[in-house]
Amino acid sequence: MGAKSLETLVGAAVLVVACAFFVFAYTKADVADVSGYSVYAEFSNVGALKTGDDVKIAGIKVGTVTDMELDPDWYVAKVRMSISPGVTLTSDTFVSIASASLLGGNYIALQPGGGPPAEDGYVFDRTQGAVDLMDMISRALFGGVSN
């Protein structure tokens, strides 16, 4: 077997391993099609939240952020979430943006209530936007702004 044949075989093996890695990473990263029903929440500040971030109840992933847009009338961020079909949210669910860690990363935390079920397309009005950690630290160190 010549040197060129050996190089070709090694190159082909590397390509096969790389393709297998990408298929594995794609299936484990939950970036495939998101299934479920869509609900919305409006926030005054989304911070570093981005499309693809998790939606959790009690720390368990139940959905994914699928879209974000600015409402041109009220200038609030309207966030669309896809919720797993087996999870039933109520219309009085409290929706907040939480930090995954001090290093960054956000997710949406849901706290369901006891009201009637929220249907596909429901817009939650009980929300809390992202908290700016640097703002909180500066207020603690230097005091709040007074009028």
Characterization of this structure:
Helices cover 24% and strands 31% of the residues. It has two helices and eight strands, in the order αββββββββα. With 147 residues, the chain is of the alpha/beta class. The protein has an eight-stranded mixed β-sheet with strand order 7-1-4-3-2-6-5-8, with no helix packed on it. It is elongated, with a radius of gyration of 22 Å. It starts with a helix and ends in a 5-residue tail after the last helix. The protein has helices at residues 3-28, 133-142, and strands at residues 37-43, 54-57, 60-70, 77-83, 94-99, 106-111, 123-124, 127-128. β3 (60-70) and β4 form a beta hairpin. The protein folds into two domains: 1-32; 37-133, no CATH class.
Number of DSSP strand runs: 8
Regions with little confidence, pLDDT below 50 for 5+ residues: none
Average pLDDT metric = 88
Q: Please indicate the count of domains.
A: 2
| Sheet with most strands | 8 strands, mixed
Helix content: 10-25%
* Strand and helix order: HEEEEEEEEH
Task: Specify Rg, calculated over alpha carbons.
Answer: 22 Å
| Strand order of the biggest β-sheet | 7-1-4-3-2-6-5-8
Oligomer: single chain
Structural class: alpha/beta
Residue fraction in strands = 25-35%
Describe the secondary structure blueprint for this structure:
Blueprint: H1 3-28, E1 37-43, E2 54-57, E3 60-70, E4 77-83, E5 94-99, E6 106-111, E7 123-124, E8 127-128, H2 133-142
Parallel strand pairs: 1-7, 2-6, 5-8
Antiparallel strand pairs: 1-4, 2-3, 3-4, 5-6
